[in-house]
Specification:
It is a single chain. The chain has two domains: 127 residues, no CATH class; 125 residues, no CATH class. The chain has two helices and 18 strands. The chain starts with 6 loop residues before the first strand and ends in a 5-residue tail after the last strand. With 268 residues, it is mostly beta strands.
Length: 268
């Protein structure tokens, strides 16, 4: 009996972005630690992971943007802010979270203006208040599910783009993570593959229906079976020192459904 071919529409990560527009003549900026040198700025941030939360018959999508460094925009020198932080963003239809990681946890950098207080390392804001416009700008493309280990290895040995899906249970529903397969191991002799890639979004904590705060940065590994192991970013104490740093240090192995999808139309 011939196994039916499974096709689906997956996120086209090469053409999907988080986008937002700041115009300080219309709305004050809520997520910066320095006064902006311009009044108008647009951001296009590539997508690393798409998380779809399914609960109570509803679906919500959240996108993780690629990491960058904190910077001043449109300046002749001193582009990189000091102290500098790794920065990325998570966006939903009406939710936005900035994740910043300095050289140590609880750095205590102030927002601008300082009257807004200390800048949270995980700062959640209403994007309708923070930005003139914002969008989770998704593009999709056709993909073919890779069924047998022979199909997987043959595809991984080529230059075709591959997307993975990992679905995990949450309270009252599930979250499906979709992400490009970057680093992956495979063996035609032993007949296995192992995804080892990221960053992705990990729904680490049930913080309320559809809350963006449930997501943390992580890397994911799986062999295509019924589990996935996540390495989650957490404040991690340094040995014998009264300081912690943000590090991918918490290993979480949980039940999961995993699949690989080869983008159709790619030249092998």
């Amino acid at each position: 009996m011939t196994t039916p071919i499974s096709r689906s529409s997956v996120c086209d990560f090469d053409r999907s972005f988080l986008r937002w527009r700041n115009d300080t003549l219309k709305k004050p900026m809520l997520t910066v630690s320095r006064p902006p040198p311009t009044t108008l700025n647009n951001v296009r941030m590539p997508l690393e992971c798409l998380a779809t939360v399914s609960r109570d018959g509803r679906q919500e999508e959240f996108g993780l943007g690629a990491s960058c460094k904190t910077e001043q925009v449109f300046v002749e020198r001193d582009v990189w802010m000091q102290p500098n932080a790794d920065m990325c963003a998570v966006m939903g239809a009406d939710q936005f979270m900035v994740i910043k990681r300095w050289d140590k946890a609880d750095k205590g950098e102030m927002l601008f203006p300082p009257s807004l207080g200390v800048q949270p390392e995980r700062q959640c804001v209403d994007p309708n208040l923070a930005f003139e416009t914002h969008s989770l700008a998704l593009r999709r493309c056709a993909a073919l599910q890779l069924g047998s280990i022979h199909e997987v290895i043959e595809t991984l040995a080529s230059d075709r783009r591959v997307v993975s899906r990992t679905t995990v249970a949450i309270e009252g529903g599930e979250v499906t993570l979709e992400y490009p397969v970057k680093t992956v191991n495979y063996s035609e002799r032993h007949g296995y593959y192992q995804v080892d890639t990221g960053p992705v979004l990990f729904p680490a904590e049930p913080t309320g229906p559809g809350s963006i705060e449930q997501f943390h940065l992580a890397y994911v590994a799986h062999l295509g079976g019924e589990w996935a192991e996540f390495l989650v970013s957490r404040p991690t104490p340094l040995a014998d020192l009264p300081v912690a740093v943000h590090h991918f240090s918490e290993s979480r192995r949980i039940p999961a459904r995993n699949s690989l999808w080869a983008i159709e139309g790619d030249v092998t």
